[in-house]
Design goal:
The protein folds into two domains: 6-20 and 234-426, UDP-n-acetylglucosamine1-carboxyvinyl-transferase, Chain; 23-231, Enolpyruvate transferase domain (UDP-n-acetylglucosamine1-carboxyvinyl-transferase, Chain), CATH 3.65.10. The protein has helices spanning 23-36, 48-59, 92-98, 122-130, 162-170, 189-201, 236-248, 268-274, 307-316, 336-346, 377-387, 409-415; strands at 6-9, 15-18, 40-42, 64-67, 70-73, 86-87, 108-111, 134-137, 142-145, 152-155, 178-182, 207-211, 214-219, 229-231, 252-255, 278-282, 285-289, 297-299, 319-324, 350-353, 358-362, 369-371, 394-396, 419-422. Helix 1 (23-36) packs parallel to helix 6, helix 3 (92-98) runs parallel beside helix 5 (162-170) and helix 7 runs parallel beside helix 9. The chain has twelve helices and 24 strands. The mean pLDDT is 96. The chain is α/β, with parallel strands linked by helices. The two termini are 14 Å apart. Strands 22-23-1-24 form a four-stranded mixed β-sheet, covered by helices on one side. Strands 2-15-17-16 form a four-stranded mixed β-sheet. Bound molecules: shikimate-3-phosphate and phosphoenolpyruvate. Phosphoenolpyruvate binds at residues 49, 91-93, 305, 332-333, 378, 405.
């Protein structure tokens, strides 16, 4: 797809947005619905990443139909013998969630774009090597062949929770019990809870076990995914952009979010409050009130997707903010730590990039100019929110990359009163 730049004229943003369906839950519920067959998922997110998951599930032999944002899956008659490559686009979740499900004895190949195939897969590589499952990672594909068997899986918890979620989709239907032992500090834990919540909707269970040595998941075998009709709740990782925009601008009211959500990124409300903002529920809408922000220290290890927008908020807050435990941000769609450090510095902010932290001395104001999205949807959307508070126009080099998670982002930006022009091709 051609890169299309966007030039934003600074304007305070305000307004009401119906928040799109959660990307994380859309992946999970689509996979469970495919495994169960005869199921419905209402309000499926229609981003490029979710389309990649549906495409790859079809490639694995799951029959499904998408009518608008309603996904309907059919009974699985047989597993596909088709071994055409499974294209995961740029979606880490798609790739890591589906790898264990593809271990059905056939030779399978996964492909992808951008940085996807260079994002780490070592945890799978090591686990599979121990089990004599073939796993080859090349620059432009991953090939695997073998059968997943139940048992004990020892896995790091500080690379990506997506490996653990991936195993959780595949292990329950095997013919014996399994256990996943987490051998390090566990980061992004809430995403594993989202996986457990999705499994539970389809009658599949796995239990946490905590002890002094750490935590583990016990997964009974011989389970079946039961057909279900489910709906996807609103996306807090996406809502974070509009809460930030409303706080820096003229306020925001967001609908479609679940008050008692298990999404880790629901923590954005508390983090904004910690920075001095007023964020509160009124009925079923979450409101962000225009507020002056102050710097603070935030551990982003459990909520990595909030990092780019927190960095923007830090640049607009009085005083110093430290975003710590951010090393894993380097292995997302871009090196998000380096990307935010470089782009905020280009806008005039005082930033210091550490190996696993970002320190921002805020309050100096941001100027416009040119910035790069690093082909990363969350960097692009964060810079677009930053642009609303800049002293001059800001041109971002790649407007289309937002489609990875949020195809409606620019429409929403306009609905919030934002003013921008795109390269002709995009309009
Ligand atoms: O399971 C998920 O839906 C996700 C888990 C997180 O990844 P890590 O577990 O690699 O931090 C997050 O960054 C990603 O956007 C979505
Ligand atoms: C990191 C992300 O997604 P994934 O890991 O699924 O590519 C994201 O959406 O920010």
């Amino acid at each position: 797809m051609k890169n299309v730049s966007v030039t934003i004229t600074p304007k305070p943003l305000s307004g009401e947005i119906k928040i799109m369906p959660s990307k994380s839950m859309s992946h999970r519920l689509a996979i469970c619905a495919a495994l169960a067959g005869d199921s419905r998922v209402r309000f499926l997110g229609l981003s490029e990443d979710i389309m990649a998951t549906c495409r790859a599930l079809r490639g694995l032999g799951c029959e499904m139909e998408l009518k608008g944002d309603m996904l309907a899956t059919r009974s699985k008659k047989s597993v596909s013998n088709d071994t055409a490559p499974l294209d995961c686009g740029e979606s880490g979740s798609t790739l890591r969630f589906l790898i264990p499900l593809a271990l059905d004895g056939r030779r399978r190949r996964f492909t992808g774009r951008g940085r996807l195939l260079s994002r780490p897969q070592e945890e799978y590589a090591r686990l599979f090597a121990e089990r004599e499952i073939e796993f080859i990672q090349k620059e432009d594909y991953i090939e695997l062949c073998g059968r997943l068997r139940p048992g004990l899986f020892k896995i790091r918890g500080d690379v990506s929770s997506q490996f653990i979620s991936g195993l959780l989709f595949a292990l329950p239907t095997l013919g014996g019990d399994s256990r996943i032992e987490i051998t390090t500090r566990l980061e992004s834990r809430s995403y594993i809870d989202l996986t457990l919540a999705a499994l539970a909707e389809f009658g599949v269970s796995a239990e946490w076990e905590e002890n002094k040595r750490g935590c583990a998941l016990n997964i009974p075998g011989n389970q079946r995914f039961s057909p279900a009709a489910v709906s996807v709740e609103g996306d807090f990782s996406h809502a974070a952009f509009w809460l930030a925009a409303g706080t820096l601008g003229g306020g925001a009211a967001l609908s479609g979010l679940k008050k008692e959500s298990k999404q880790g990124d629901a923590k954005i409300a508390e983090l904004l409050r910690r920075m001095g903002a007023t964020v509160e529920w009124s009925g079923d809408k979450l409101h962000a009130v225009p507020s002056k922000l102050r710097g603070t220290e935030i551990d982003v290890s459990q909520t990595p997707d909030l990092f780019p927008i927190l960095a923007v908020l830090a640049a607009c807050a009085e005083g110093e903010t430290r975003l710590i435990n951010a090393a894993r941000l380097r292995i997302k769609e871009s090196d998000r730590l380096a990307a935010m450090a470089a782009e905020l510095a280009a806008l005039g902010a005082e930033v210091k990039e550490g190996t696993d932290s970002l320190t921002v001395a805020g309050g100096g104001g941001l100027r416009g100019g040119a910035a790069s999205a690093h082909n990363d949807h969350r960097i692009a959307m964060s810079l677009a929110v930053a642009a609303s508070a800049c002293g001059g126009e800001l041109t971002i080099d790649d407007a289309n990359c937002v489609k990875k998670s949020a195809p409606g982002f620019w429409k929403e930006y306009r609905a919030m009163g934002g003013s921008f022009v795109m390269d002709k091709e995009a309009q």
